[in-house]
């Protein structure tokens, strides 16, 4: 039996998020992926364990999931082998063998998300599924100053959707910055983990900063308030992409041999 | 009665091309646009005259069309006024009044198309609707050399889909070059007009050059042969976007006053 770590890219537009639902009519990325892998490996009980539960309409270029399989297919050939079994909006980008005790969620060191904004007088229809549209010109410099104020270890309860039941709302943000290219403004954020809707609430707050509704210096006060109502709106899902999940695979492999 | 020139952006994915079809079940960009404008202006006989007949799956950021209307809506407000009547994949970007004898097709000076290629080992699902996927690494330098060989006035019969009934296949290409950014390779081509599938056949030929199947120096021979079979394949529609259509609106306005 091999444990295989998959890197998965998808366009989340047509899915009710990553996580498989009990009702088979609800199309999810995990559901489609599991179906394809079960067919490929002729293994009706195969399950995927994903690293991140992306929401409805959210995209990924570097989602990760593990499967346990007995197979003669060389591991590096799995992406190509599964291709014709998957819809065109889900792609297995990479497959690699990992130690038997590797867990895609618990072994994650950090994750990077990108949130994209189309900032211009008119919508761009080719970008409508991959950006949120903001008409008024955003102040990039202020957004960047505000973004840097997210860096640190804080209780991010003010940036967590109501109804979440996590035991701790403390998270570490290692990096957060804003870049623009043409009409697209991208927010990049890297942290050890994210609360429910956290990146989208951060994005909504940074948009408010860019519109001069919130000052960059208020970010820390908002965090420390722990009050969801002080932060900005939850920005739309289609602007969000899970870019990368980082593991110390080498360290892990050494551990498993030790 | 005012003649109004509209600039239209659309994602062509869900349409059978620009041009309205006799069958109302066939969804086209022109058909949807006309429906929205007829509702806005309460003018059931309003017709659009488009500048370019883009194909099924082809996109536009700068399509143009004229309408003739009696209206009290200020011309510059039309894009916003029609927005809620249009599906989200069609956007009227701009509206401007033009002289009564202006024609979007006959008065066109030149057009620019972009053809986008996703060149990398694995598909990117977020780019699948807006690029063609080429696995093997393309030689950008050779593609650029080949692209420059398209510039000039030639009989482009070798770059025209069979079955076309135009009276002349002579066209002038003013500019043609290739640029890359990350995994995306873009071909830009500007000319006074294009034959049926011409840009997509040029793109297919430039991809063959990038794959070392055709040498840059062969471009001129292929053009001069007039033989469609000597050129490359017709590249997929989703990589193509009509970027811009150029008019000498100032000169035209002066003419109409003279």
UniProtKB/TrEMBL annotation, chains A, B:
Domain of life: Bacteria
Gene Ontology molecular function: any one: tRNA pseudouridine(38-40) synthase activity
EC number: 5.4.99.12
Active-site residues from the entry: 55
Top enzyme class: isomerase
InterPro entries in the record: PsdUridine_synth_cat_dom_sf, PsdUridine_synth_TruA, PsdUridine_synth_TruA_a/b_dom, PsdUridine_synth_TruA_C, TruA/RsuA/RluB/E/F_N
Keyword tRNA processing in record: yes
Residues annotated for substrate binding in this entry: 113
Pfam family, one: PseudoU_synth_1
Family: Belongs to the tRNA pseudouridine synthase TruA family.
Subunit structure: Homodimer.
Function: Formation of pseudouridine at positions 38, 39 and 40 in the anticodon stem and loop of transfer RNAs.
Name under which the protein is recorded: tRNA pseudouridine synthase A
Lineage: Bacteria, Bacillati, Bacillota, Clostridia, Lachnospirales
């Amino acid at each position: 039996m091999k444990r295989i770590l998959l890197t998965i890219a998808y366009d989340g537009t047509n899915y009710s998020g990553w996580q498989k639902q009990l009702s088979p009519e609800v199309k999810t990325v995990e559901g489609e992926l599991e179906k394809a892998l079960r067919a490929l490996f002729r293994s009706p009980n195969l399950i995927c364990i994903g690293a991140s539960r992306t929401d409805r309409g959210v995209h990924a270029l570097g989602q990760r999931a593990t499967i346990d399989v007995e197979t003669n297919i060389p591991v590096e050939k799995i992406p190509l082998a599964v291709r014709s079994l998957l819809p065109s909006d889900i792609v297995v980008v990479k497959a690699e063998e990992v130690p038997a005790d590797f867990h895609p969620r618990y072994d994650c060191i950090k994750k990077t998300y990108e949130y994209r904004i189309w900032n211009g007088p008119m919508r761009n229809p080719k970008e409508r599924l991959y950006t949120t549209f903001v008409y008024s010109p955003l102040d990039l410099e202020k957004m960047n100053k505000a973004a840097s104020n997210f860096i640190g270890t804080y209780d991010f309860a003010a940036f967590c959707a109501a109804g979440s039941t996590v035991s701790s709302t403390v998270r570490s943000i290692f990096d957060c910055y804003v870049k623009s290219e043409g009409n697209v403004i991208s927010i990049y954020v890297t942290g050890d983990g994210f609360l429910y809707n956290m990146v989208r609430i951060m994005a909504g707050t940074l948009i408010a900063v860019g519109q001069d509704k919130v000052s960059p210096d208020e970010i820390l006060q908002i965090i420390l308030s722990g009050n969801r109502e002080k932060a900005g709106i939850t920005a739309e899902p289609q602007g969000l992409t899970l870019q990368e999940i980082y593991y110390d695979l080498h360290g892990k492999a050494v551990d498993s041999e030790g």
